[in-house]
Amino acid sequence: MQKNAIGGGMPVRKLAMILTAVLLLVCASSSAQTITLSVKDAPLKQVLVTIKQQSGYLVFYNQDVLTDAKPVSVTARNVPLNDALDLVLKNQPVSFLIRGKMIILSRKTPLPATPAPDLGANPAANPTQHLIGLVRDAAGVPLAGASVMVKGTQKGAATNAKGEFRIEANPDDILSISHIGYETREVRAGNVLFIVLQPSSSRLDEVQVFAYGTTTRRLSTGNISTIKAEEIARNPVVNVLEALKGRIPGMFVQQQTGQPGTPIDVTIRGKSTLTGNGQPLYIVDGVPYPSGQLPFSYPSVNSTTPNFVLRGGNALDYLNPAMIESIDVLTDADATAIYGSRGGYGVILITTKKGKAGKPQLNINAQTGVSVRGRSPRLMTLDQYLMIRREAFKNDEATPGPTDLDLNGTWPLNRNTDWKKLSAGAFGQTSLLNATYSGGAGRINYLIGGNYNVQQSIQRSTGAFKSGGLNFNLNSTSPGGKVYFSLSGSYTATLNDMLSVDYTNATLMAPNAPNPFLPDGNINWEPGANGESFAAFKMINKNQSNNLTSTAEFKYMPITGLTIRTVIGFNMLSGRQNIAYPSAYYDPATNFITKGNLNLYNVRTWNLDPNINYQFGLGSKGRLSATAGFTLVDKVSYNQSTDGNGFLSDDVIYNPTFTGADNLQTVYTQVPARNLSYFGILNYNWDNKYIINLNGRYDGSTKFGPDYRFGKFGSIGAAWIMSSEKWFNGLLPVISFAKIRGSIGIVGGDAINEYSYLNTYSNASAYQGNVALSPNRLANPALHWERMLKRELAANLEFLNGRIGLDLAYYNNRSENQLVGLPLPSTTGSETVNINSSAVIVNSGYELSLNTTNIKSRNFSWRSNFTISINRNILQSYPASQVLTSNNYVVGKSIQGIKLYDYAGVDPETGYYTFYKDGVKGQWDLFSPTPLDQIKDKTAFVDLSPKYFGSLVNTLSYKGLSASFVFTFTNRMGHNYLGSQTYPAGIFNYNMSETYLQRWQKPGDITDVQRASQRFTAVLLQSNFVSSTGAYSRALYARLANVNINYNLPASLFKKYVSSVSIYASGQNLLTISQYKDLDPENLGVGMAPLSKFTAGLNITL
């Protein structure tokens, strides 16, 4: 068996080596341009044409530059471009400048000025001219889509893909040239030739992606948060969502356990659906991407098997973070309504890196590091454990018996094993290699990249999450710049052979218990050795997946302002998972049956997204943009799960079909889904001062019946840039920018499974040898969309010329027509029926983002960013005529809360837990005349949703050295350590945290830890305690989530072929500050805590 193979194909290490070799060969073949010339008395213009043909560089000059040029005589063979130009222009009145892929010629001395004619009496003597210009960035790269306006008029043009524009203007007119992400520049029309725009250093001009276009913070009417590639690269993570924790206002990210590849929950502005299925819409380069967890199947073996935690992970595990250029998170109605039903729970737009014009570049990034176990309880020592055990017998007035192996001498009283070290190794190694080769030649830009990544498990079993892949982008424009085409693709193969179990609870054995492993590595089935808990180390788990994403974009710009665009996307996420229980998994003294499962899954999505946009002047200072189009999304989810048992040999357990037909069972599902939507967008901008944006969408989904498939959604957003008013500057000079914006709109929700409007059935036990079906759900053809009314009011401010930036937002989201599965009486023959309930959920809250430039000098800078999100979630109403779909729902309370017994503390006299029942304090255990009722007596309520969360980021740089520090924080309620324990202190072979040393010991003791006891009464009270308010504590914490230190080595140390070299070190989850004891406050003790990671790397650009 090839343990390092991905998808059964080429080993990933060889793939990485081959990829690197190919990239190096391509780089070598694309070395510096050379020129060969042999001319005598040739016109300079002709020689320049030859240089253009050989180099592929654009030669740009004004007509008067060559007015008195001399003939050229020169002979040169394979000389660099710079040297060839020096020779050609040696005795010419012309100088040159190379910018990117362009040669710019200018006169060494200007021509004598011609006296200006007198135009005062004859304005017609200053006629309108057809002017041609070129707009580039500071590196010489063409800027497509730049706006060129004749100031004070409605005359305007936009640059094509080559950065060229044509405009009618008088020589004395002032042209205003602007582009998203760059500083606006004004030039006189008579001087137009070559215009360079400098990147804007203001956050206001930061490029943000939204539906069918881009905008900036300055001009946006919606709520868009952006994370760039530079920030993502600082985090050594497999899944990019891990790098977003606390960074995006309103977006709460929680990883269920610390193991690589585990599920990640994402909630944007609170839970808004009673089904709990509301997931954000993920779009990668225009292609809808699978959200939520993957469709894995895990058969249950027995009740003693540790919990499975790697149930599919998250689909973004299969998207290489190094490929990502930016992530834009859309939250309010103005930003999300254009996505209709799909955007009801938020939208996450992921843009991957693209090829850009410029000289070829090869970038190689390699890093290595380790992952170590995160926060875990400090367990009692052997002496402390034995003390508690003996005290339990003393409290119960009992003596150890034959089954108390830890006390009766069967187990040595001096044997002390650290079960954490036994189940979890010291560390897991991590390795990462990324390589990209990009550049541009003429009108074609390209990028090709590859990656290889390994994240080893820290548990005892050898296993790792391995991935390798390729990605590319090719984009091109026509000679006239009217046609643009882009093709992108990526392929990632992964192999995850880590065990899908978490041994956090298996480490609680008595310190003197026998080793669950024999010297030869097999399971120790000796009584008390807890072999059944560690048997899962003998399981076989192998998950291979393949992810293919491709996007083709076509744009045609037949006339100025009109763009016809089509995007075609395809994604296929497929895989094969083996889970097997060989003979080594079972106690050989029992009659066991070996079992194996093969799960095949495939999620295929394609989309067609054509649209047309027209921009034109409307009013003396206004500009209107109109977009219309439709979207078709076709998705098919396929799953086949095959179970076999009773294998004759463990060698064939990988294939369940290698057993008898009577021992084989296959479940097959194929679920098609389709969405069809029509949309329109109107955006009007008056003088970059008043902006209004309207969205409308007519959305259809096959999740609903034929008569209710389509819904109408839309929004309106508006912004007023007050600081552009003349009266504002003199009134508040300290404020350099001020914008008020707001939005309101209706979006849809379809957080249900396919076919939910139909009768559904499941397999049942065979009847008289025939296959039987059991009804699950009744049909409801009138099922229709959830509706969410989103409202937001926000302000964006900058002070002291951008040194301080403040963003404030208040939102109120009201969700109606809730899709719920209503429980039915057993007499109906079905379990549930899906309906639209009139229940109403409201999420409201505040979001704040503060950006400051604390210090900025020539060599040193210090910038800070602080974000905080406060959300309140309530179930505002629920129809009295409908049965609550959860016993934890309370009108006026959060839907993320839980109803509990009212905890009254530990009785100082008896040392047992007590609770309130009808206002009376008592034990109320199962043996009481009136024990606690699981429904009626749960009168207390605890809200488990975050009260607030956010982050603090500090970035410092000094010359070539930079460092960033990211702190995240959260305040919420969660299960405390005492409330997460099944048994009380004193139970056989059950060790606990040192917190239990604070237990009740004698009458009069005041404590929250019950007495040590091994009686059943104490076990029952512990069970009641777990369901009481005493089991929950406030999990307020601040975590040093990431530290990154980077040093750019001086360029003088390297030859000219090396553009840059940097070394860096990163750390993840390094420090936690919290009064929440024993458990990790991020995942609240649910399995393994988030891992601490330490990495170092090297980044080279050639």
Automatic annotation (TrEMBL):
Keywords: Cell outer membrane, Ion transport, Iron, Iron transport, Membrane, Signal, TonB box, Transmembrane, Transmembrane beta strand, Transport. It is a multi-pass membrane protein. Residues 1-32 form the signal peptide. It is found in: Cell outer membrane. It comes from the Bacteria. Residues 57-108 form the Secretin/TonB short N-terminal domain. One of its GO terms (biological process) is iron ion transport. Belongs to the TonB-dependent receptor family. This is SusC/RagA family TonB-linked outer membrane protein. It comes from Chitinophaga agrisoli.
